[in-house]
């Protein structure tokens, strides 16, 4: 079948779903290039439309073919009757950056002035030039067209030529009542379609609203753009696919960029901070305002600068356009394009000896209080070359460690391509395959084959399918007191600090080694007292919302929800001797609090122990052929440097917090659980048993996820030793292959087998719920991170709690009472037994042969 027949058939197939065809592949682009060289060109209009609008820009393989073809036309090496050399330059200029940049810069010195002129005009609007900036500077000394480019960048014409955000925006409301989490917008079960934005957008809100796509189509007939309106919007994960789907339905096309849209308006009573940032990055306008007077179908007028929303001429809500740079961000096409362009303008002005520009709104910076800094404020300060930062400050922080997982990896890859980047500047970028390795679809297999090369060829580190959960690995690569990010909302380092972001921000951080941050306030959680027998770290995790609720700082109800942690940094102290593996349980769960980030104050000893172990792991990874070896070696070197003089930042005694919550561990005398289906809905075991509406019989138990470590599985094994088959269906999934092999070696898999457990390969498994799932409507006890509706199984009711309580539930088939639990815990898991159970993987203490076996 010819390209044209093939692509038309594909277009018709996709049209049946109401979506456009996929962009052309590199091979299809080569075929298209050949057709465009025929004389005469058959079906000229159709082929030109394919060439102009259906090839992804940046450093996509197809973009390489397109740019080379156009370069050939400009240089007179390729003859094309439907694209002349000046038009070829113009088309090159629509490709955003990457493979088009060199041909455009070459064209500045073409013998044909019309070509030079066109190249100059196109480069003036091109921001993704990276090191090619120096080529323009060098040419500008002798070439007037290059000089014009430099002057235009310095004047910020790329920005001033774009329309200012309208003073009044008329919109039709599409309201999603209550809370929308990112799983509603981009279901985990459809994760494999995320990089195909139009296809993935078809499942937006599918399990939450009745016929959302039909309703949206019908609302569009009113002739106005739609606004996404909700009480609480974007809770949960950092997935950019959520905003991608909103923008696909409510945004505007981007010329010459297929299957992606920008713009759009999101209005939320509360907009979750990561979602807010992702919206900003993507060119949407997020507004936090009272939405109680807005209903689906209402036509409203939004006045961004006056900060009001009107319906039928009456003001129904007021808001503040914040941050103060938001209007500039929307004008530039997003926060990220604004940062890149602003930096380009500054660089050009510096080169030309010009002073500071006055074109862009300066980020508002708070007054210095003169007080001390919190631990997080010192860590962020360190990443900015400052002693500390203040809440409300805007900074661009050095981002040393960046994580990417598989269900967002394809989007991050596409964003890296759109940034036109061929290498990473962040010190370490790591890719995992934990969400899709157990039961991969053909598209996952393709990703498993291709993504490692993409990551490693840019200097990143790639894990392999089956290696295990991203965070358990990435944490082992982190440096103390440094800053990072990741496109998984649980990227929350136990040492240092991490601000998870959408895939666009993560790609930006990976490519540039920096990330934009509006420094949030901090909430201090201070543990005091003594940990009681039978109480686990997971109970302390759940004690944080439990105590916050008692203090009136958190509510479960979504309407008018209170959450003292939302958008703030959760800083935890009072447990300095925790192993770093344990500290991650605390930091990981800060995602469920909707916190922007988390710090855990630890003593040096556990950090020294952890890094000494991790160096051995990384060295073994290099021996096993993991790449990029240079990046791993560089990270080992930095760990060794830290170990030579191990010091950790400490908060100042007079540091200021938005709230201080003290939790007396002596007062926690029984397990605390999160009830179905809300991680904030926490109760003690006795409270749950007294509550008639809570189910007590447990159908399925899941022990796994990044919230677990090897000690949890030994504890499960000890509870089951000699007990035979579990009374509830038991799922066991260790976080990494090293944990799995060690547990096998220690005989625990034999116990799990006797218990009739379903054991999966290391990875996310039921925690993500995108592959295997629990039975419909099952009552589940899980050690995983979150229990949003339908995440783990359709209609499932999921309790979240410790592995120890999970073990007892699996044994009995129901929630135990406090005495039953304490009796089993004391008999199997406490006293001298605990020392043997709660040992962590110290790779530096292993025999060489065992280390090789575990990391193999
Ligand atoms: S185990 Fe769960 S929370 Fe952790 S990375 Fe996987 S899906 Fe995310």
TrEMBL record:
Every Aconitase B HEAT-like domain range: 6-159
Coiled-coil stretches: none
Domain Aconitase/3-isopropylmalate dehydratase large subunit alpha/beta/alpha: 463-813
MF terms in GO: 2-methylisocitrate dehydratase activity; 4 iron, 4 sulfur cluster binding; aconitate hydratase activity; metal ion binding; RNA binding
DNA repair as UniProt keyword: no
Domain of life where this protein originates: Bacteria
Residue ranges annotated for the Aconitase B swivel domain, each copy included: 171-373
Family: Belongs to the aconitase/IPM isomerase family.
Pathway named in the protein's UniProt entry: Carbohydrate metabolism; tricarboxylic acid cycle; isocitrate from oxaloacetate: step 2/2; Organic acid metabolism; propanoate degradation
Cofactor(s) of this protein: [4Fe-4S] cluster
Listed EC numbers: 4.2.1.3, 4.2.1.99
Name recorded for this polypeptide: Aconitate hydratase B
TM region positions: none
InterPro entries: Acnase/IPM_dHydase_lsu_aba_1/3 (IPR015931), Acoase/IPM_deHydtase_lsu_aba (IPR001030), Aconitase/3IPM_dehydase_swvl (IPR015928), Aconitase/IPM_isomerase (IPR050926), Aconitase_4Fe-4S_BS (IPR018136), Aconitase_4Fe-4S_dom (IPR036008), Aconitase_B (IPR004406), Aconitase_B_HEAT-like_dom (IPR015933)
Catalytic reaction annotation: citrate = D-threo-isocitrate; (2S,3R)-3-hydroxybutane-1,2,3-tricarboxylate = 2-methyl-cis-aconitate + H2O
One cellular component (GO) term of this entry: cytosol
Keyword Lyase attached: yes
Any one GO biological process: propionate catabolic process, 2-methylcitrate cycle
Pfam families for the chain: Aconitase, Aconitase_2_N, Aconitase_B_N
UniProt-annotated binding residues for [4Fe-4S] cluster: 706, 764, 767
Free-text comment on the cofactor: Binds 1 [4Fe-4S] cluster per subunit.
Binding site for substrate: 194, 237-239, 405-407, 489, 786, 791
């Amino acid at each position: 079948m010819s390209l044209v027949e093939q692509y038309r058939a594909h277009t018709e197939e996709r049209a049946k779903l109401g979506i456009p065809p996929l962009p052309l592949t590199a091979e299809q682009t080569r075929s298209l290039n050949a057709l465009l060289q025929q004389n005469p060109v058959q079906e000229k209009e159709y082929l030109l439309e394919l060439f102009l609008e259906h090839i992804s820009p940046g450093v996509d393989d197809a973009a390489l073919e397109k740019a080379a073809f156009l370069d050939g036309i400009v240089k007179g090496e390729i003859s094309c009757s439907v694209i002349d050399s000046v038009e070829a330059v113009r088309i090159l200029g629509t490709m955003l950056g990457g493979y088009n940049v060199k041909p455009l810069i070459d064209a500045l010195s073409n013998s044909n002035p019309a070509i030079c002129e066109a190249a100059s005009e196109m480069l003036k609007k091109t921001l993704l030039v990276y090191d090619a900036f120096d080529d323009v500077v060098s040419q500008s000394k002798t070439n007037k067209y290059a000089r014009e480019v430099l002057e235009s960048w310095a004047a910020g014409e790329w920005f001033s030529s774009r329309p200012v955000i309208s003073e009044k925006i008329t919109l039709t409301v599409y309201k999603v009542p209550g809370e929308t989490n990112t799983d509603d917008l981009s279901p985990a079960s459809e994760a494999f379609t995320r990089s195909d934005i139009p296809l993935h957008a078809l499942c937006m809100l599918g399990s939450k609203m009745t016929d959302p796509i039909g309703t949206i189509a019908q609302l569009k007939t009113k002739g106005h753009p739609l606004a996404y309106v909700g009480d609480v919007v974007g809770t949960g994960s950092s997935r950019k696919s959520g905003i991608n789907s909103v923008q696909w339905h409510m945004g505007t096309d981007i010329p010459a960029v297929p299957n992606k849209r920008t713009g759009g308006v999101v209005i939320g009573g509360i907009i979750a901070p990561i979602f807010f940032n992702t919206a900003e990055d993507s060119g949407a306008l997020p507004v936090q305002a009272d939405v109680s007077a807005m209903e689906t179908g209402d036509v409203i007028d939004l006045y961004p600068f006056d900060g009001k929303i009107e319906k039928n001429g009456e003001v129904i809500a007021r808001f503040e356009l914040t941050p103060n740079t938001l209007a500039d961000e929307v004008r530039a096409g997003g926060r990220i394009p604004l940062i890149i362009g602003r930096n380009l303008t500054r660089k050009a002005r510096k080169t030309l000896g010009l002073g500071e520009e006055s074109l862009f709104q300066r980020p508002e910076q708070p007054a210095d209080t003169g007080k001390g800094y919190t631990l997080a404020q010192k860590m962020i300060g360190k990443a900015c070359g400052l002693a500390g930062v203040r809440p409300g400050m805007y900074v661009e922080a050095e981002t040393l460690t960046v994580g990417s997982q598989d269900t967002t990896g394809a989007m991050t890859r596409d964003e890296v391509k759109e940034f036109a980047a061929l290498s990473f500047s962040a010190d370490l970028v790591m890719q995992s395959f934990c969400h899709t390795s157990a039961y991969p679809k053909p598209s996952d297999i393709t990703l498993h084959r291709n993504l490692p090369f993409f990551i490693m060829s840019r200097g990143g580190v790639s894990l392999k399918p089956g290696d295990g959960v991203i965070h358990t690995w990435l944490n082992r690569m982190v440096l103390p007191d440094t800053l990072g990010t990741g496109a998984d909302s649980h990227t929350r380092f136990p040492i240092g600090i991490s601000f998870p972001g959408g895939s666009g921000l993560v790609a930006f951080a990976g490519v540039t080694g920096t990330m934009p941050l509006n420094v949030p306030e901090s909430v201090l959680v201070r543990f005091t007292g003594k940990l009681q027998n039978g109480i686990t770290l997971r109970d302390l995790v759940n004690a944080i919302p439990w105590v916050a609720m008692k203090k009136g700082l958190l509510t479960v109800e979504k309407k008018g929800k209170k959450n003292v942690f939302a958008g703030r940094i959760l800083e935890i102290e009072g447990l300095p001797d925790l192993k770093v593996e344990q500290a991650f349980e605390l930091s990981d769960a800060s995602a469920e609090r909707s916190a922007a980030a988390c710090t855990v104050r630890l003593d040096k000893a556990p950090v020294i122990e952890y890094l000494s172990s991790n160096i051995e792991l990384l060295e073994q990874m290099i021996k096993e052929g993991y790449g990029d070896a240079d990046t791993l070696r560089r990270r080992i070197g930095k760990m060794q440097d830290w170990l030579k003089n191990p010091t950790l930042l400490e908060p100042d005694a007079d540091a200021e917090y938005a709230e201080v919550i003290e939790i007396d561990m002596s007062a926690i005398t029984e397990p605390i659980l999160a009830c179905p289906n809300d991680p904030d809905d926490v109760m003690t075991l006795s409270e749950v048993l007294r509550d008639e509406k809570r189910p007590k019989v447990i159908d399925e138990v899941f022990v796994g996820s990044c919230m677990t470590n090897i000690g949890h599985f030994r504890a499960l094994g000890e509870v089951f030793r000699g007990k035979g088959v579990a009374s509830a269906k038991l799922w066991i999934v260790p976080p990494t292959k090293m944990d799995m092999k060690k547990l096998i070696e220690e005989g625990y898999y034999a116990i799990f087998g006797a218990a009739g457990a379903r054991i999966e390969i290391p990875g996310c498994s039921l925690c993500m719920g995108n592959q295997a799932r629990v039975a419909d409507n099952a009552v589940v006890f899980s050690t995983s991170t979150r229990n949003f509706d339908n995440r783990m199984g359709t209609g499932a009711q999921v309790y979240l709690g410790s592995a120890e309580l999970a073990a007892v539930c699996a044994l009995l088939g129901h929630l135990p009472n406090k005495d039953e639990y304490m009796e089993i815990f004391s008999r199997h898991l406490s006293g001298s037994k605990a020392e043997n159970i709660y040992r962590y993987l110290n790779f530096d203490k292993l025999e060489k042969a065992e280390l090789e076996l575990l990391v193999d």
